[in-house]
């Protein structure tokens, strides 16, 4: 399909936002993973420890999924200059709404 109403910059604007979202998502999973790991090192065996081990395993699994999505998104960047410009626009937009 030939897109007649979508500006040429739209793809990179969408990629910039999606990649930012995956970075934020991964960051929060990483924060949880470190927290769970630290807790597991300090608590005694029991139900709570088992729960944390499950939560850590689930968190690591989710992080792997986010990594896969991130890699698929970044593979679509064909023009580094256009992508950098889109990141700048996205950053400015987030700053303006903060």
Extended strand count: 0
What is the beta-strand fraction? under 5%
Overall structural class, as computed from helix and strand content, comes to mainly alpha
Number of helices: 3
Q: Approximately how much helix is present in the residues?
A: over 70%
Mean pLDDT: 97
Order of helices and strands: HHH
Note the gap between the termini: 37 Å
Assembly level = single chain
Sum up the overall morphology in one term.
Answer: elongated
Number of domains: 1
Query: Uncertain runs with pLDDT below 50, 5 residues or more?
Result: none
* Sheet with most strands: none
Work out the radius of gyration.
19 Å
List the helices and strands and how they pair.
Blueprint (H helix, E strand, L loop, with lengths): L9 H33 L4 H28 L5 H18 L1
Describe this structure in words.
There is one protein chain. The protein is elongated, with a radius of gyration of 19 Å. It starts with 9 loop residues before the first helix and ends with a helix. The chain has one domain. The protein has three helices and no strands. Helix 1 packs across helix 3 (80-97). It is mostly helical and 98 residues long.
Brief summary of the model shown:
The chain has 3 helices and no strands.
Quickly list its features.
98 residues, mainly alpha, 3 helices
